[in-house]
Amino acid sequence: MTVLNDFRLRLGDNEYLPIMVGGMGVDISTSALALEACRLGGIGHISDAMTPWVSDRHMNTHFTKTKSGRFKFNRNSQDKTQVKFNLDELYKATLGVVTAAVERKQGDGGLFINVMEKLTMGAAADTLGTRLKAALDAGIDGITLSAGLHNGTLKLIKDHPRFHDVKIGIIVSSVRALKIFLRSGKRVDRIPDYCIVEGPLAGGHLGFGEDWADYDLRNIVPEVIDFVKSEELDIAVIPAGGIFTGTDAVEYMEMGCSAVQVATRFTITKECGLPEHVKQQYLEAEEKDVEVNSLSATGYLIRMLKNSPAIGSNIKPQCEPLGYTLSSEGTCLYVDAYYNTPDDEKGRKMPVMDKICICHHFGQHNVWTCGHNVYRLKDTTNRLADGSYQLPAAKDVFNDYLFSENHEIALPPVEAETA
User: Fold this and answer.
1) Segment 239-292, tens digit of pLDDT
2) pLDDT digit string, tens, across residues 346-390
3) What pLDDT digit, counting tens, does each position of 150-195 carry?
4) Which of 113, 239, 343, 399 has its CA 20 to 30 A from that of 247?
5) pLDDT in tens, 58-88
6) Contacts of 268 (CB under 8 A, 6+ apart)
7) Do the beta carbons of residue 359 and residue 325 sit within 8 Å?
8) H/E/C letters for each residue in the chain?
9) Is the pTM of this model over 0.70?
10) Measuring CA to CA, how many Å separate 389 from each of 40, 136, 279?
């Protein structure tokens, strides 16, 4: 029987095992997780989401504290127009995070970074260009452009010496979105090496509207493949969202895909950056616990567990230390929702139900974003004597994808201390 290991992903002169581990921010796709996928011969993603905060967390820097002090005068104001990132500090933070990962790279796989357009950071083009240039200077193997159409992104780095060497991909949810990106690429003589076709069952932010349930990845992918072939484009098509077994992956490969991107099953691995108690929440989840809502301050729909602690929080907007979703005009949907929420009779802010402060709550791992199939995770590992679940190693999940047959999932070896 055909298994995923029978296929290979080719990007230019490079050949990989056909597994990409998605770039989950903030610090969920840790460098440890990305580097393990790379070591095993696949492609791992780190995320560029909130790199100054990630740097502070892991590298003893103080970018967030410095920014907070710079704008402390503005903490009680609804007007955030003055709150901006220092581009030199943003460059140093991103450079440091990416360099630290690149220097530890082993194996024949690829180390990529997921770069979000929707991280507008008070100056959308300037901050996006800074993050991209830092990643390129640090030696990243590939850049996956996400959370937006990226119509003007490539021109921000067209003069970089690695522009035509680094692997570049785009996440789309339709042929139409890919066409828009291709038009911008042609203006700077650069088409993507790959496109990730993300369906409506994916975790986190979705590239669909309220009618998301009307779409099916198995229908979208063939449309993209047919378009790429008809235009004679050398672009690898990589589906994502709901690919839960190696057999699922093989079915897409047999359609003509070049690899698959997966993430949900890696959220409970030891290398994933989620705290263990959150991983156990994912493992305990039932299908009824998953919802798609409009609470994200980005304006995109987002899939998460209904019991995420961020929901109904009334935390004061954290734009001065963080501010990653501020528009160039200094606005944010959470800031508006917070100041439009009344106080109770004791003068305390009522729960903010319209939006969540994703800058703060993603950093605290209080937004339990997930793929639709999160409720199936309990079937991929062992229940322990104390009622909790064993956390598999990323290698266990990676190899299960490679060799799975008939949609079967091999449980990880029971560890000696839990036997």
Assistant:
1) 999 999 999 999 999 999 999 999 999 999 999 999 999 999 999 999 999 999
2) 999 999 999 999 999 999 999 999 999 999 999 999 999 999 999
3) 999 999 999 999 999 999 999 999 999 999 999 999 999 999 999 9
4) 113
5) 999 999 999 999 999 999 999 999 999 999 9
6) 274, 279, 282, 283, 377, 380, 381, 389, 391, 392
7) yes
8) CCCHHHCCEEECCEEECCEEECCCCCCCCCHHHHHHHHHCCCEEEEECCCHHHHHHHHHCCCHHHHHHHHCHHHCCCCCCCCCCCCHHHHHHHHHHHHHHHHCCCCCCCEEEEEEECCCCCCCHHHHHHHHHHHHHHHCCCEEEEECCCCCCCHHHCCCCCCCCCCEEEEEECCHHHHHHHHHHHHHCCCCCCEEEEECCCCCEECCCCCCHHHCCHHHHHHHHHHHHHHCCCCCEEEEECCCCCHHHHHHHHCCCCCCEEECHHHCCCCCCCCCHHHHHHHHHCCHHHEEEECCCCCCCCEEEECCCCCCCCCCCCCCCCCCCCCCCCCCCHHHHHHHHCCECCCCCECCCCCCCCHHHHHHCCCCCECCHHHHHHHHHCCECCCCCECCCCHHHHHHHHHHCCCCCCCCCCCCHHHC
9) yes
10) 25, 39, 9
**Token pair for residue 135?**
């990643």
What are φ and ψ of residue 240, in 5° steps?
-150, 150
The tokens describing 176, both together, are 């139409």
